Amino acid sequence: MDNRFTAIMVAAIVVVAVIAFVVGYYINKPEAPPAEEKIKIAFIFPGDVGDTSWNEAGYVAMNIFVGRHPDIEYTWIQGVYDPAQIRPQVEDYVTQGYNLIVGFGFQFEKPMYDVAQNLSEGQDVYFLVVAGPGSYKHPRLAVADVRTDQTGYICGYIMMQLTQTGHVGFVAGMDVAELHRSWIGQRKGIQDAGYNPDEVYHVAFVGDFHDVTKSSLLTYELIDTYGVDVLKTMGDGAQLGGIAAAKARHIKVLMSETYHPEIYPDGVVLYEIWHWEIAYEEWYQDYLAGRLGSETGHVYWLKLENNGITLEKGAISGDLWNTVLDLESKIKAGQIDTGFTE
Fold first, then answer.
1. Domain of 290?
2. SS3 (DSSP) at 232
3. Phi, then psi, of 31 in degrees rounded to 5
4. Helix, strand or coil for residue 181?
5. Looking at the domain assignment, is residue 220 inside a domain?
6. Is residue 3 part of a domain?
7. How far apart are CA 169 and CA 202, in angstroms?
8. Are 308 and 278 in contact (CB under 8 A)?
9. 51 and 180 in a common domain
10. Which residues contact 128 (CB under 8 A, 6 or more apart)?
11. What is the pLDDT of residues 212-247, one digit of tens each?
């Protein structure tokens, strides 16, 4: 009897001890540390990211950038072109808690400035306008741009080595930002090659980035009216239209923004490629370091010196490619004036 009683008491004590241990464990169990919040970045593209031009350059750069930062949460949208669309989209991303918002085009500057004006002091939100004119200044608003005057200079110089008629041309979307800067550089390159750009250089700005048909018609006009046989193209559909007409008439082309040798393999002699991931990275690092918001006027330049803008060989001779490399080296060394200063 005593043994049975003792066994029961021991068992009861063990059960009570186990229960006490379990209850105590869950009462005193340390809470798991909260998951670290990811930095959220949104990218807004005005056109089709498969356009082989402006939007694709930004989209490819986005993928390179976020691929280097798995800690970032990101989203993107395309086809937001009109300023009336832009502000609601930007405000929606702010509401969703995005910290960094990229607008890929000059038309994003005013809507982003307006949104920045209405943010409270404690909101951790900053904007980057790619190719923004810098007309609207705000500590939360930065600009990324590209030194197309540098590559424009090389293109202008090389076009004069290629032409058989003595007449070259430039077909582009609008006379703004990087397109205007390229025009400046091309004129300077033509001049330094020993020609008067007012006599041999013919330009058509389409007035729209999406009108492929109008761009083709303007290119045909340059060819038929002036005898243009080497063409520089730039800007979304304007570039596609220019290349299509050049291909139909079998003239040489210097392509901008992306590398697509399949479009006109025998006719594109030089590819000018823009690496916007350079600007994204610099802006992001400034955000991490707390340098954004303290002052206005942040500008992140793509240029030959930081490999933000590069040239790739197309259907061009080895001798002319060596000329390209020589000019590039001299521009990097500050030995050539391309007609533009930052």
1. 39-147+277-304
2. strand
3. -70, 145
4. helix
5. yes
6. no
7. 5
8. yes
9. no
10. 100, 101, 102, 103, 142, 143, 144, 279, 280, 283, 300
11. 999 999 999 999 999 999 999 999 899 999 999 999
